[in-house]
Amino acid sequence: MVAGAQTHRLANGGVIDRSTSLSFRFDGKTLLGFQGDTLASALVANGVKLVGRSFKYHRPRGILTAGSEEPNALVELRTGARREANTKATTAELYEGLEAASQNRWPSLNFDVMSVNQLFAPIFVAGFYYKTFMWPAKFWETIYEPAIRRAAGLGRAAGVSDPDHYDKAWAHCDVVIAGSGPTGLAAALAAGRSGARVILCEEDFVLGGRLLADGGTIDGLPAAEWVARTVAELEAMPDVRIMTRTTLFGVYDGGTYGAIERVNDHLPVPPEHQVRQRLWRIVAKRCVVAAGSIERPIVFAGNDTPGVMMASAMRSYINRYAAAPARRIALFTNNEDGWRTAETAIAAGLQVAAVIDARPDVSPAHRSLASKAGFPVLHGSVSGVDGGKNGVRKISVALTGGARAEAEADGLAVSGGWNPAVGLTSYHRGRPKWRDDIAAFVPDGAPPGMIAAGAANGAFGLGACLREGFEAGAVAARDAGRSGNIGSMPVADDEAFSLTPLWHVAGKGKAFVDQQHDVTASDVELAQREGFESVEHLKRYTTLGMATDQGKTSNVAGLAIMAAVTGKSIPETGTTIYRPPYVPVAIGAFAGHHRDENFHATRLTPSHQWAAEQGAVFVDTGLWKRAQWYPRAGEKDWLESVTREVKAVRSGVGFCDVSTLGKIDVHGPDAGAFLDRVYINAFSSLAVGKARYGLMLREDGIVYDDGTTSRLAEDHYFLTTTTAKAGLVMQHLEFCRQVLFPELDVQLTSVSDQWAQFSIAGPKTRDLLKEIVDPAEDLSNEGFPFMGAREVKLRGGLKARLFRISFSGEMAFEISVPARYGEAMARNLMIAGKPFGVTPYGTEALGVMRIEKGHVAGPELNGTTTAGDLGLGKMMSTKKDFIGRVMAGREALVAPDRQVVVGIKPTDKARRLRSGAHIIPKGETPGPGNDQGYVTSVCFSPVLDQWIGLGLVERGRERIGEIVRAHDPLRGEDYDVELCNSVFYDPDGGRQRG
Amino acid sequence: MADFSWDVRSPLDRALVAGRYGAQGDVGVSLTEIRNFDLVQVMARRGQAGEMIAAAKARFGVGAPETPKAVSASDATLIWSGPDQFFVLSKGGKHTMESLTPGFAGSASLSDQSHARALISISGEKARAIFAKLSSIDLHPDVFGVGTAAATSMDHTSVTLWRGGDRDGQAVFNLLVFATFAESLWHTILDSAAEYGATIGHSEDL
Q: Is B153 on the interface with A (CB under 8 A)?
């Protein structure tokens, strides 16, 4: 395909690099632009007027603005996985090979069958969803909603994972400045010179703001030269950071600001190792909002015709991009500033068809301009636009006094005045206040530390912008404690600004307020008639301002029209609440690095690499990766592997990395007294060299956590927690130490990561240990009895801690060594255990053995159970006070009909038991009234050769032997189970003591 | 009898690949893991902070830090780790649990943390740019000078951060991270460093 000529590119001027020609594609057609273009300016330069179809009516739409306020020129940028919907052509930088597609049209932009919607416009009025698709209700999900979504969607998401990287970063400064127009640059100068750390954020890729389009003279220099000189001065300051392509989008507590940096959106693919976008959290002592203002449209019939454009945007295209939006331009203005577009057009050699000025008077200078250039000045308003998808053809004018006029033009510039960008200043619920002299809302109630200056503060003249910006920068720096010499203030003249408010011109045909959401002036009037007068109701009923542009060009006009129909003033009508982000921010940027395998931090046990070499299957347990089982060749499923591991332990010896348990050093003369208060059972009486199982309660008497705690010295206990509660228990104990019991001399240190700990279990455990432990250590039942705990020497001289504790019900020890020896320990256990068939086992086998043994774990310690429920009520000491003691005695917590831990097995030995199944008495109808508890933990027991489980069942311990129903509606199962003793294996505990 | 070797293995043994990483060209940052150090947590007993500081002074010739600072002694660094507590970081068995215990008897409780942490040193022109992605702390030299320390979090992981003495005119930031989190944080650091180009290594020297 041949690249189209840049038919509308002006011969001279513009902040573009004509030596770098860029080829791009729009809707499959190859076009050319220049470095420095946006997609919008390149389309303008190629004479493209039609760029999209509207949301509801599929009306042809063109480019309205030249900035991030754009409601119409939204495209799908890029293709494939990098496709991004609703990208504003007005801010998308052109690059070689850019591909963009228009949205919301089918089959093509030029011929869109959905434009038939316009014929049904009466049913698409405000609230049409609620009115039209009410009946029958069941049609909503199956018919109405899918159809509406297909018809109305604005752009398509890529539908596949984003291949690019995003990250997040913090920055700190004294003064953050939003915007690099004359105000922002002057603020940066003053703040920078006074020695402040400054961050200047500019959403554009070029600094200068409106100076790029409107020029001017500052300090006697052409604006471009002044900008260059100022930027050079700022760049020479080591603590001034200028960030282009960065939008300050929100302000949060404590002087934290959100900013999005489009690091590489101007390239087809980010360079290797680079991110596409970066989300910044900027912590600043002060903020200067120099975000400028947004020119506002006047609402009139046909105001959405392609070729109707904001007057300031026309100047941007002509002056900054040397691209002519039209060859014969009509201007509709209600203020002096709009006239600059006529001046610009003439200077660029374009024709001016007419100026339609809604004000009663036009200055003599402009009259003489008109007569010199030979165009009429029409006093009145635009009442209609002839044209269509190919753009504006003719403008109808209602003259003041009642007569009509027409003007032939291929473009219409509109200026309704300027609205300061009040977003940032209003994000802490500050309500902007109305200023009659400029007929606009200006910031009020800005968050602490934030100053609005220049056009963002309603000061529209260049001189005023520089003055306010410079003063704001100086004040901000001073308030941040910087007092350097700020030098002289940049000076420029102020332009005239005289405006007669005009919001809406009554006329025949659709007059759009919110072009992105297709909200018309009559929709606003309808909302009022139907009682939705409050601006918040207006917004939600009509969806005015709820599109991705957040109504930047439409909100004020909408509420002005509402004010007019209700007979109230605009300030009485008020504004809706402003909320961040100021521009759309990709979710990927908020996620940053934290996606996929980096979604959260992971913790690895000391023997992780060894386990991985053994082919372990890992399971996520909180943040941990734990070995779940170690499959061997030929095993058909996990159950086979797990069953093998359990049998190996029960008949020989196995080991398991249990380093994930929380481990806490409890030091100090009062360590025992402290533990007596946090555990329900006594620890001050524990002998040095012994371990004890402990249970702690919450203040409300419910079980909090359990674990074994050993006394290693008179003033040193080693406490362990469950894996899940490790951090929380540490936190709880610190709270107890610092807040509840400050009188106790006790110190706590987490040593969870210091020790690699392995459980070694099975009848041959001692045989294995004898291989690895120094022969001088006595491991006999007498020399190292059940619940013994002490330091031992290993062969090779390393010291380890050995604890004779058992979770499996077998003869077992836990051994711990400093963590960097953890992997060596795993390897050495394999060597030492080789003669005894040692088998590493994972968390599944660990779970099977604890269920067989009736030990409670997470599913039973579930935040609702008492010590009594768990069958551990007798552990509650009556000789001392402890946390949770009093509340545990509450009536309901000691009621006889509580659901308590009991063993459960299906009467049909072949049946699989599933956790979550409800326990219902035989012969009763399942339902909440008959629900007596549920199955908490299940496993296949190799010892019993059937599925078994633990459950919490009403009066369970009194009902041993009773047959009840396990009702599992989730899985559609219902079967008989027997309630039994929760200790399925070795109930008298002979094996673990042997 | 089987032959047992007790080789130590750093928590970053698997993840750390010495050499260049990320963007080629200029080296933006050096990432160095310091291996096999001794680290002891010293916590004052109730009402004994003064005695603890005096005991530290007697042993190291410098007082223990009472604010978030890292203090250098001739063969150890004392790093603030919380109110009335600090770390003793050293090498070569000079200040282990065994050797420190007598001096602090009665004034402090000691806990061995030598294996509980990994130590990562980050320096180079882009060090601050990388930390900007990891930490909410302001590391501007006016704010975070040599010897400043912080107990903070990175990547949702608790860390102790302090600025060591400058090397080749560049700031050096040291990071103690819990050993079981080390590999995870390391990957995050690598991701943060990739665009600037890194040299990666490990060292036995503090």
A: no
Nearest 5 degrees, angle CA A307-CA A312-CA A315?
80
Which residue in the block uniquely carries the two structure tokens 């199944």? A917
Name all domains of chain A by residue range, CATH numbers in brackets.
1-160 (3.10.20.440), 166-293+421-479 (3.50.50.60), 306-416 (3.50.50.60), 502-566 (1.10.10), 603-659+755-850 (3.30.1360.120), 668-747 (3.30.70.1400), 896-993 (2.40.30.110)
Would you call A531 exposed, middle or buried from its count of C-beta atoms within 10 A (0-12, 13-18, 19+)? exposed
Distance from CA of A216 to the nearest CA of B (A): 38
| Block residue for tokens 């690598």 | B190
B140: tokens are 């501007």
Structure tokens at B84: 């009335």
Task: Let me know if A924 is exposed, middle or buried by CB neighbors in 10 A (0-12, 13-18, 19+).
Answer: middle
Are the C-beta atoms of A196 and A172 separated by less than 8 Å? Answer: no
Burial letters for A820-829: b for 16+ Cβ neighbours within 10 Å, e otherwise?
Answer: bbbbbbbbbb
Cβ separation B46–A602 shorter than 8 A: no
Which 447-476 residues of chain A touch chain B by CB within 8 A? none
**Chain A 619-658, residues with CB within 8 Å of chain B CB atoms:** 623-624
Q: From CA A940, how far away is CA A942, in angstroms rounded?
A: 6
* Structure ipTM over 0.85, yes or no: yes
Select from B5, B22, B108 the Cβ nearest to the Cβ of A824: B5
Question: Is the CB of residue A818 less than 8 Å away from at least one CB of chain B?
Answer: yes
Per-residue model confidence as pLDDT tens digits over A930-945: 999 999 999 999 999 9
Residues counted in chain A: 994
Closest CA to B128 of B144, B139, B117: B139
The interface residues of chain A toward chain B in range 821-860, judged by CB-CB distance below 8 A, are 821-824, 828, 831-832, 834
Beta bridge partners of A295: A418
Give A643-684 pLDDT, tens digit per residue.
999 999 999 999 999 999 999 999 999 999 999 999 999 999
